[in-house]
Amino acid sequence: MSTQRPRRAAVTGIGVVAPNGLGSDAYWKSVAEGLGVLDLISREGCGHLPLRVAGEVRSFDPASLIEERFLVQTDRFSHFAMAAAALALDDAGLSADPADPFAVGVVTAAGSGGGEFGQRELQKLWGRGSKFVGPYQSIAWFYAASTGQISIRGGFKGPCGVVASDEAGGLDSLAHAARAVARGTDVMLVGAAEAPLAPYSMVCQLGYPELSTVDDPDRAYRPFTEKACGFVPAEGGALLVVEDEARARGRGVPVRAVVAGHSATFTGASRWAESREGLARAIRGALDEAGCAPEEVDVVFADAMGVPEADRAEALAIADALGAHGTRVPVTAPKTGIGRAHCAAPVLDTVAAVLAMEHDQVPPTPNVSDICHDLDLVTSRARPAELRTALVLSRGLMGSNAALVVRRGDESAR
């Protein structure tokens, strides 16, 4: 009978392109300080829309990071993803030209797709005629475009895919990658990036009643308070290198965290009261897969929808799943400072969780005070704490719920 230890998925590289910084160091500095970067939307063609506030990535020059041949055939959301992937590979000490290309796979999650590219080409179609539509219209808008371009650019021929399961798909993609590693793939590039701030994409979002149309950046997104009025969107995202833990330690690189457990459920679009049970079940499932007791959770990164009914359901779900510990464990939602980047939001939260464990600090929840739920929500400033295990939560507007357990790297070696 084999006693070989199961292959576990270790996070060894992190790449971030977010409204509050390019790279994990800049991102963490802003998150740890509780800086809010929400502002009035500056994108051309958006000024007349009722959606006024968002998290924009303002200091991003794709031409300085991505080759021209890829730029012309890809949308902004793929630019973010490709840049984040390159940063993650560099952080992990891995080459974009692997010796065994079949040992490296890519999986991303996507919600909005390439709206800006698609809008531009459709305007050419209706304004000038079909001969003026570029050939890349057929692929640049597609949800799988980022996965495809990252794999082509890096020469990666391992298992590749895209997860399209609502905003919670960001966590589902991490589970997908972890399972690929468990089945024998050496390395997976995984994460999500979104670019939902083009006029066409924004108009599509206006049908969501959960969207905040408040025009004051300091008041537009305040979950878990009596003044909660919805969420604001954001662009950007993050990619992580996830590889077999034993392989990583053999390479001599730091194991930054281990993807320990995941579970997902579905409770229906905008049925926020019902999401209580669905999210609680997801939490229990993730803890069971991780072999983690509720009291072992040291910090919770909340979904933080910003809708009163949804916030109440999440607070109750945490209590349902964690018991008495649910009212004591520190909870945070750093996304209130940068906006909710759809599928990329829980991936950015996972990055924040990994960095929080490395720094033993629970980052604050910007712009939020006067909590009206029985949660130990960290506000104002970061809270020092010994962090070994983090729980990341996510729900989608169409009804998906997911929970992910990550453990700090040095704990996994014990």
TrEMBL record:
**Biological process, per Gene Ontology:** fatty acid biosynthetic process
Q: Which GO terms describe its molecular function?
A: 3-oxoacyl-[acyl-carrier-protein] synthase activity
So which domain of life are we looking at? Bacteria
Q: Where is the Ketosynthase family 3 (KS3) domain?
A: 6-408
Cite the entry's keywords alphabetically. Answer: Acyltransferase, Transferase
Q: Which SUPFAM superfamilies match?
A: Thiolase-like
Q: Has UniProt tagged this entry with the keyword DNA-binding?
A: no
Q: Which Gene3D superfamilies match?
A: 3.40.47.10
Name the family.
Belongs to the thiolase-like superfamily. Beta-ketoacyl-ACP synthases family.
Under which name does UniProt file this protein? Answer: Ketosynthase chain-length factor
